[in-house]
Specification:
2 domains; globular; mainly alpha
Length: 229
Amino acid sequence: MRESILTIPVSEIFEPREGCPICRMRDMLEKRTTEYIMGAAMMEPDVRIETNRLGFCKTHFDQMLKQKNRLSLALMLQTRLDTLEKEVFSKPTLFEGKQKKVKSLVKNNSTCFVCSKVDWAMERLMVTVFEQYKTSKEFRELFKSQEYICMPHCEMLCNLTAEGLDKRTAADLRDDCIALASKHIRGLYSDVSHFCSMFDYRNNGENADWGNSRDAVERAVEFLTSRKP
């Protein structure tokens, strides 16, 4: 697979200041990867070997199903199913044993081609994020000006700082992440509470003011899970 398609300038990800920048990073990587393998790359031998071996998770199956080229997905499924039948579900040999089949089943249920590529690219992009946070005052201000950091990516960043930054810079980044998440969760709580209050009969009527609460449930789910419902 051409890894160049997973190269994204960090500044391009952080400039919009809409939602969680790490979600934007992941979403862009997922989009590029799924579009790549659903196109002509689907017939590249090295790609097919990997998709046959790793398969796809539910999230990325859903993304591929939304694209128009269902034949590409069907062809990948055809060879993936054939691989699974031969490697997992065929009768064990005398020297293989059933336990090996169970281990193979567990392994094949926990791998995904897209996840592997996105994780690979995310690791490298995080190195760049940390380096820019450490050396660039402008990037620090850009980081602080984000709308929010979602819960899963707040945890991820806080955990990774210990590996990629000195103690002082790591503490600063953790403080910024938690501040962004904390500010956003207060606003979400207010909007979700307002949404709940609108079901009180006293707030019904033609002039009912829903404010920013109509999509509060969806926004709360996205903040808590990093995925749009």
